[in-house]
Amino acid sequence: MIVIKTEAEIEIQRESSLLVGKTLAEVAKHIAPGVKTIFLDKIAETFIRDHKAEPGFKGYGGFPGTLCISVNDQVVHGIPGQQELKEGDIVSVDCGVLKNGFYGDSAYTFAVGEVSEELKLLMQRTKEALYLGIEQAVVGNRTGDIGYAVQQHAEKFGYGVVRELVGHGVGRQLHEKPEVPNYGRRGSGVKLKENMVLAIEPMINLGVRNVRQEADGWTIRTLDRKPSAHFEHDVAIKNGKPDILSTFSYIEEVLDKK
Ligand code: MG
Ligand code: MG
After folding, report:
1. Of the four, 62, 69, 83, 105, which is 20 to 30 A from 55 by CA?
2. Closest CA to 147 of 200, 220, 204, 192
3. Is the pTM of the predicted complex or chain greater than 0.90?
4. What are the residue boundaries of the structural domains of the chain, listed by start?
5. Which ligand is nearest to the CA of 24?
């Protein structure tokens, strides 16, 4: 069943979503060539606990990290470890927090040092696809309208839209119904209602859409080993329209100063 939140619950959840944005901004300060992904994970965990919240992913289904850190051809669910970031990499950082009983869940893909024009465009257009999907999160639309908007934008550039992983409802559980695919037909899927909260999260590949899971049981990578980008926002449907609970503004303040 699909959980409809109260207005008060949405305001509590907004706090969780904003804390994710602040955590990702803290991580952004430390993204540089030579940095190990486990170091970024520790920064995030400390920051979240300092703000009286719990890492939302740690222990979820046995996941060991606070962050999912996915470099280049890793799409999502990368496990933080001894891997060092290199100049020219792109790194997707997905973060969840649990505060006052509600989850926030948001992701951003970062450039490590200077990256190729091709990768800058992949990141920019994936973010654009996210916002085009969010525009469709209005009362009376369906999840397929969100997916259609994301897919149309991504495929226009010849990118592959990952299908095996999807967005989702989010609230007292990290993953609630409905599923929010990043592909679809207009007017198909679950009808969107006032006070639903959705995590919308396009995963867009430079090459083919196909992915596979690594032997670690978590990391999803592209089949053709070309890079992939991932951006995610938590979106409430309020007064019929999308109200983005998470934010990239703290992150982008940090990136503007870099
Ligand atoms: Mg996420
Ligand atoms: Mg999510």
Report:
1. 83
2. 200
3. yes
4. 7-257
5. 1
